[in-house]
Amino acid sequence: MEFQTFPNEIVFFDLETNVPNKTGQHFHILEFGAIIVCPRTLEEVESFTTLIQPKDLSVASLRSSRSDGITRDKVADAPSFEDVAEKIYGLLNGRIWAGHNIRRFDCVRIKEAFAEIGKAAPEPSGIIDSLGLLSDKFGKRAGNMKMASLAAYFGLGVQKHRSLDDVRMNLEVLKHCATVLFLESTLPNQLEGKWQSSSKIMTRSRSSYQTAQRAMPYSKGSLGKMTQNVKNLLSKAQGNQALQSLIKHSHSLLR
């Protein structure tokens, strides 16, 4: 079957797998989730998620520490990867792949899963790995670069470690980061001067009008270097349609 490709569309995807705890044990995909977003507006236009039954059910945990976690019972009646491979191929092939740490994990697992069933794996037209991108451009102001930490930094809730929820959270994190970087690049002198003058900022409660202090999540003097990184990012983004989409979305939020 021939599949139409969409080289300018972005597909955010995420895999949930078992955690190998024995020597020689491999990763097995237990859930796949993806959203396709419009490259001009970054609005979600299509979504898909499915649990996946591994060939060896014993690799799935009997219980989960999370209330909505993936357990052996949940995947026992799920389709196999081969059953949903065609759908996954159609979603991924020829699009820009986006996700958090996908270069080292999700991309590798997808290729392994297709190889296991003897079928050609989908190929991306480009890759946006938010872990590498944000580590380089946003810095560690949110602490470590885990999705849970970034989401907490922006008040986006708790990461559920379910594929569809996580990809939607990933997109929102990128939107927030892009907006912050846009603001910093737009008013570097004003923002840099104010933020470097104190390690705390003053916020006013709308309900009680009481002034409170909140510690800045990054150290003094770091913003100058960050501003230069932002300028470099904006310069490079002129020829990168995917990055340009993120910046245009940030600009639209400020109107």
From TrEMBL:
Highest taxon listed in the record's lineage: Eukaryota
SUPFAM superfamilies: Ribonuclease H-like
Magnesium found in the keyword field: yes
GO molecular function, one term: nucleic acid binding
Domain Exonuclease: 9-183
Entry cofactors: Mg(2+)
Gene3D superfamilies, per the entry: Ribonuclease H-like superfamily/Ribonuclease H
Keyword annotations from UniProtKB, A to Z: Exonuclease, Hydrolase, Magnesium, Metal-binding, Nuclease
InterPro entries per the UniProt record, alphabetical: Ribonucl_H, RNaseH-like_sf, RNaseH_sf
Name of this chain's protein: Exonuclease domain-containing protein
